[in-house]
Design the sequence.
């Protein structure tokens, strides 16, 4: 049985159970990976997977069964219903939505998994040579992966949606060493399945390898508060961590105090600050037509002119908070139920040029690129791949990479300049509730933050 | 499985088939209430071959087409690394207990009750706290066969309980929590709620911290968030082979404080990461990584060991059928003589770090750690005076662990993969606003 046949079989039976609502996800996927460590291609593999899940809502509680055998499907649906029934006193309700029947093809690009391994290897071999042409280099790591997912969403109110999505990811890391000192720098980017998007990066990769070497002799920043300027890539990570996660309604909807703090209409930043999330923004890694609860994608203004104006929702959080559906329920695979996630998140561009932004900074830090970021919602950290002192309005000496931290309620307010040069970072993956990495994109123009706390010596 | 091995042997010199099947049953509480009961079943098979001396690899979960799996492995072997090892033949494995049938028979209503017992005492102590809790029972079967007659097979059960709470007051958010994992059922919810109650008590007041060097005590959870990512990276045979480990050339040298001893140990009965053999059929062993401050061993799988002219330490790991790489099983840090109370009494002005957020996101290879104190307390004149916020602690493990002020007397399991006591560092950089 394939997932299409399984889908039709389940569509015929899920209406018959004693449940308020039942939905089914079915999926088949393929992926390939190439990893270089040092000068050699260390491993290649290809994997495939088939699986699905049934999620049932009975008297306000959820039962969920995932499987990767397509046998005995009726029994699995029955199990989800029985599990849900064990939960007494749940209060889950769903915002109703019209049934949708659709079949979405993912454009005309060739499936990246089918691109011959030899062709992928040739591109990556070139990048590895570029990295190794840098003097003082100790080692390198290159990770390439691609994949395609074909998936169906079926529910007991008549929706039957088939979608597919392809994904391509490239990460490079050059490692420089001198004595016991080790420094690393790299690039990370991805696309919605277009293998060509990772071609022609030789210069960027050469530059990052050189950065790793330069950092060996760079001093460490002194810890404390600085005026910092973030490049579009790091500013994208910043807005994702600093604000994006708290605009996910599932962090807020069951917590009365948080709902008060995060009430729509509250001011979070200056009038120049506009923040958007939307899977309906086309062509990015977080883009799709329908989310994993069968809701059409939207574009949501989270902050407009500094004021909280929108939130990301699933059908459950939208019902509980009485706010509009946004189409942000996503699951990383059939092994997990959908939860509220970001898609493509960015700060809209303003008017300030990069030169104007740094010209009046006497002593500050310019941070570029990223290692990662994380949040506790109130406080968050994000780490820069490169850092430079700003002295008297100019970029000065190279520093070792720094970790920055902030507080939701003060740091956004401290953004006092927003650049005119929006750029999207497609190289990230987001983790939440054990589901990682979910393809997302984030972006921003250059931004300046006053009084940003930096860890250091 | 035998079928795949037979097909693979027709086209390749050597082959290995790895099969893993699991069933997980997590019960999840959200906002103080039972929310979801799940059941997750999964089976996957992976095939590794050596063809023309090169490694090929393919994996599938769900519907498994033996022929396609073999063809894919042959395709990837064209670009594979030359194999630097042979698959292990039949050997005997140490007896390591990792299955308790009682786990499978814990009924869901009892799991629900355990979840409620994790939440109730916390709500009584701190009204307004919003708790999430999870109770899960998992069982796993694993089987491995290879063309040299090697054969491994075992079943494992794990049981996990944990609770986390969020308290929001104005714009201040406090996060507390604790959890445990074992191969046997865990029913002592009080052991966990006592830890969380203590966190809530210590966090009642806020305390200010100046920006300067000061003594810092890392609790077992704090040790894991600050030091472990860099240690795991440095002792990984792959990092060493590439010359990217700062201690790669220092086997036998004293690099850390002479009181520090760390083992990788997959043989502890009923510890959740224990096992009779690793994922390529190499028997489990206790491997000293640091002995009295001296670097003793690095962690290897077969291929990495072959490349490094070393022996596999039985640390081959492939997760749910992924690519093989060396990975620690359970890190055990030794204990010493100082109690936590003695450490605190010793400090005029300093910090206790329970959770350092973001410390694994800097230059981990180089040993740097720098993070925001997500949960931590201020010490003044030998007493804990309150919780700290908006504070960063930074350092480098090769400096911080070179001379430690004291090592704790009692150790605690953190997340089933690390057991460590408190570590007291005499002076670290603290930045605050």
Sequence:
């Amino acid at each position: 049985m394939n997932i299409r046949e399984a889908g039709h079989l389940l569509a015929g039976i899920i209406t018959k159970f004693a449940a308020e609502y039942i939905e089914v996800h079915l999926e088949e996927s393929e992926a390939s990976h190439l990893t270089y460590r040092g000068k050699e291609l260390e491993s290649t593999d290809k994997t495939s997977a088939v699986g699905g899940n049934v999620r049932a809502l009975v008297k306000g509680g959820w039962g969920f069964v995932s499987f990767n055998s397509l046998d005995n499907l009726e029994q699995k649906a029955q199990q989800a219903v029985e599990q849900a029934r064990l939960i007494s006193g749940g209060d889950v309700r769903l915002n109703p939505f019209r049934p949708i029947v659709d079949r979405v093809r993912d454009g005309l690009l060739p499936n990246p998994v089918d691109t011959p391994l030899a062709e992928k290897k040739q591109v990556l071999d070139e990048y590895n040579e570029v990295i190794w042409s840098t003097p003082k280099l100790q080692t390198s790591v290159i990770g390439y992966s691609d994949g395609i997912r074909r998936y169906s969403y079926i529910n007991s109110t008549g929706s039957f949606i088939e979608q597919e999505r392809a994904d391509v990811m490239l990460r490079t890391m050059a490692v420089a060493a001198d004595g016991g000192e080790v420094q690393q720098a790299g690039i990370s980017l991805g696309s919605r399945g277009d293998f060509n998007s990772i071609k022609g990066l030789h210069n960027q990769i050469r530059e990052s390898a050189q950065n790793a070497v330069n950092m060996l002799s760079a001093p460490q920043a002194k810890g404390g508060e600085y005026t910092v300027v973030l490049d579009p890539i790091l500013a994208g990570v910043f807005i994702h961590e600093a604000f994006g996660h708290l605009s996910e309604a599932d962090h807020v909807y069951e917590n009365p105090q948080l709902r008060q703090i995060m009430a729509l209409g509250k001011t979070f930043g200056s009038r120049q600050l506009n923040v958007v999330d939307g899977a309906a923004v086309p062509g990015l890694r977080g883009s799709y037509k329908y989310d994993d609860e069968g809701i059409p994608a939207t574009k949501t203004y989270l902050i407009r002119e500094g004021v909280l104006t929108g939130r990301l929702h699933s059908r459950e959080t939208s019902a509980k908070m009485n706010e509009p559906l946004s189409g942000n329920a996503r699951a990383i695979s059939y092994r997990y139920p959908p939860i509220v996630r970001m898609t493509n998140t960015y700060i809209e561009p303003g008017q300030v040029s990069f030169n104007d932004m740094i010209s009046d900074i006497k002593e500050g830090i310019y941070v570029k690129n990223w290692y990662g970021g994380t949040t506790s919602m109130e406080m968050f950290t994000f780490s820069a791949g490169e850092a430079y002192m700003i002295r008297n309005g100019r970029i000065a000496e190279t520093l070792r990479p720094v970790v920055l931290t902030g507080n939701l309620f003060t740091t956004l307010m401290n953004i006092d300049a927003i650049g005119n040069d929006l750029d999207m970072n497609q190289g990230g993956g987001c983790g939440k509730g054990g589901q990682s990495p979910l393809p997302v994109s984030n972006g921003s123009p250059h931004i300046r933050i006053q009084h940003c706390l930096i860890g250091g010596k | 499985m035998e079928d795949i091995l037979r097909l693979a042997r027709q086209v390749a010199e050597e082959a290995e088939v790895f099969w893993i099947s699991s069933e997980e049953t997590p019960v999840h509480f959200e906002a103080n209430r039972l929310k979801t009961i799940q059941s997750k079943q999964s089976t996957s098979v992976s095939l590794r071959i050596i063809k023309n001396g090169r490694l090929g690899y393919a994996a599938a979960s769900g519907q498994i087409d033996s022929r396609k799996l073999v063809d894919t492995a042959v395709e990837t072997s064209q670009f594979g690394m030359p194999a630097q090892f042979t698959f292990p033949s039949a050997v005997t494995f140490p007896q390591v207990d990792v299955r308790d049938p009682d786990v499978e028979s814990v009924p869901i209503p009892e799991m629900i009750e355990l979840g409620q017992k994790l939440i109730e005492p916390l709500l009584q102590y701190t009204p307004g706290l919003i708790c999430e809790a999870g109770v899960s029972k998992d069982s796993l079967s694993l089987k491995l066969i290879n063309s040299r007659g090697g054969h491994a097979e075992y079943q494992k059960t794990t049981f996990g309980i944990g609770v986390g709470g969020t308290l929001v007051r104005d714009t201040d958010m406090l996060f507390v929590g604790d959890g445990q994992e074992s191969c046997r059922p865990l029913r002592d919810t009080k052991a966990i709620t006592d830890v969380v109650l203590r966190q809530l008590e210590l966090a009642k007041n806020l305390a200010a911290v100046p920006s300067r060097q000061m003594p810092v005590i890392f609790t077992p959870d704090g040790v894991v968030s600050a030091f472990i990512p860099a240690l795991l990276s440095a002792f990984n045979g792959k990092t060493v082979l590439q010359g990217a480990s700062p201690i790669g050339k220092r086997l036998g040298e004293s690099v850390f404080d002479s009181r520090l001893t760390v083992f990788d140990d997959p043989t502890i009965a009923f510890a959740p990461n224990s096992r009779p053999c690793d994922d390529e059929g190499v028997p489990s062993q206790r491997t000293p990584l640091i002995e009295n401050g001296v670097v003793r061993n690095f962690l290897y799988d077969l291929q990495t060991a072959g490349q490094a002219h070393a022996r596999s330490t039985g640390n081959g790991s492939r997760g749910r059928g992924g690519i093989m790489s060396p990975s620690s099983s359970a890190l055990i840090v030794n204990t010493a003589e100082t109690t936590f109370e003695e450490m605190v009494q010793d400090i005029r002005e300093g910090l206790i770090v329970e959770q350092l957020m973001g410390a694994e996101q800097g230059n981990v290879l180089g040993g740097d750690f720098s993070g925001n104190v997500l949960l931590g307390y201020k010490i003044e004149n030998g007493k804990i005076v309150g919780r700290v916020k908006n504070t960063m602690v930074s350092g480098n493990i090769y400096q911080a662990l070179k001379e430690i002020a004291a090592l704790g007397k009692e150790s605690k399991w953190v997340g089933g993969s690390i057991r460590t006591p408190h570590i007291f560092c005499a002076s670290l950089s603290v930045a605050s606003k």
In short: Chain B touches chain A through 80 residues (CB under 8 Å).
